[in-house]
From TrEMBL:
Protein name per the record: Fatty acid desaturase family protein
Top-level taxon in the UniProt lineage: Bacteria
Transmembrane regions listed in the UniProt entry: 44-65, 197-221
Domain Fatty acid desaturase: start-end pairs: 65-300
UniProt key word Transmembrane helix: yes
Length: 352
């Protein structure tokens, strides 16, 4: 973010560039962008109701091994479903009512150990400069890929740990230089304030655990970010993994994957990821409709999570030897072609 790649992205015009968008009639797009509290209220009641029930059963059965399935399910909702809630509410599209977005965004940010003020600006940059090396602070898989890091992250051992370290750093009254590169100076004091509040919460939970002589309080707050992270990491890697970087067409650098209803609920329809990046202001519950409207112009979606990993994983392994390699997405005959003048250099090293 502070090195030569960032400077190069600005010099070559990749930073804050004009991206390709599929043509959609204005009236239809206006309808798709219409916000509604109903679906998100329903899903939020289901989510938090399930979390309360699962944690309650887990506590009642503690420390029996029979509590394990309930903690594992609770962990996925805490450590993975909160990732998609953080994401959608950061866009302000999940609910029509602003304060509802803000409340769920704050809760989800705490669960995911992502400072809500730092990450709001980080995610804005991710959408402005998606997978532009040196500009996008949210590239999950750098080249060449670090497989040990990717696997460790399935247990939250990288992102969560980094989040807690950054929380302590911010709580001392400092903002990291990388954060300062995309967070306006007027907003930086909010990063510090939230970090200090979180430190107090975690300190209270840890103190309670010591007083009880049990890790039970940490099973409710903190540890689920580790043992429940696997689903959000699994789906997150598929968003852009193995695809092109430094291009300005989301059909080249993003992946749509058909998923089962449970994963779609946890992921809040972010499996329609090309569509989301093209039109980020369309609410999550309208993404299936958006997909139907634009699929004629997009690469064929991956048919399942397993099939997408079967496509992506060999590409990542090949990048160990050739970091310039990536998977080129094939377009249907009904699609507008890629802008070869923008992507000629990259397409030359894509998969055949």
């Amino acid at each position: 973010m502070l090195g030569a790649d960032a400077k190069r992205a600005v010099e070559t015009g990749l930073a804050a560039a004009e991206w390709y968008h599929t043509d959609i009639p204005r009236k239809q797009m206006k309808d798709l962008m219409r916000r509604d509290d109903g679906p998100a209220i329903r899903d939020t009641i289901i989510l938090f109701g399930s979390m309360v029930a699962l944690a309650g059963i887990g506590i009642a059965l503690w420390p029996s091994i029979w509590s394990l399935p309930f903690w594992l399910a609770y962990g996925v909702l805490y450590g993975s479903a909160m990732d998609s809630r953080w994401h959608e509410c950061s866009h302000g599209t999940a609910f029509k009512t602003r304060w509802m977005n803000d409340v769920i965004y704050q809760i989800a940010s705490f669960c995911m150990v992502r400072n809500p003020h730092a990450w709001r600006w980080s995610h804005t940059r991710h959408h402005t400069d998606t997978i532009i090396v040196g500009r996008d602070p949210e590239i999950a898989i750098m080249r060449p890929p670090e497989f040990a890091r990717l696997i460790a992250n399935f247990f939250g051992l990288v992102d969560a740990w980094n989040g807690w370290i950054r929380m302590l750093y911010n709580a001392t009254g400092r903002v990291h230089p990388e954060e300062a590169s995309y967070i306006p100076e007027a907003e930086q004091h909010k990063v510090i304030r939230v970090a200090r509040i979180w430190v107090v919460i975690y300190a209270s939970v840890i103190a309670l655990a010591f007083a009880m002589g049990s890790i039970l309080p940490l099973m409710v707050i903190g540890l689920p970010r580790l043992y429940g992270a696997w689903h959000h990491v699994m789906t997150g890697l598929l968003q852009h993994g193995g695809l092109a970087d430094n291009v300005i067409d989301h059909r080249l650098n993003s992946r749509t994957v058909y998923m089962n209803p449970i994963s779609r609920f946890i992921y809040w329809n972010m499996n329609y990821h090309v569509e989301h990046h093209m039109f980020p202001m369309v609410p999550y519950h309208r993404l299936p409709e958006l997909h139907e409207a634009v699929k004629h112009d997009l690469p064929l979606p991956n048919s399942s999570i397993a099939q997408a990993f079967a496509e992506m994983w060999p590409a990542l392994r090949r990048q160990l030897k050739n970091e310039d390699f990536f998977l080129k997405r094939d377009l249907p005959a009904t699609a507008k072609p890629y802008r070869e003048d923008f992507h000629h250099a990259a397409l030359g090293t894509a998969a055949e």
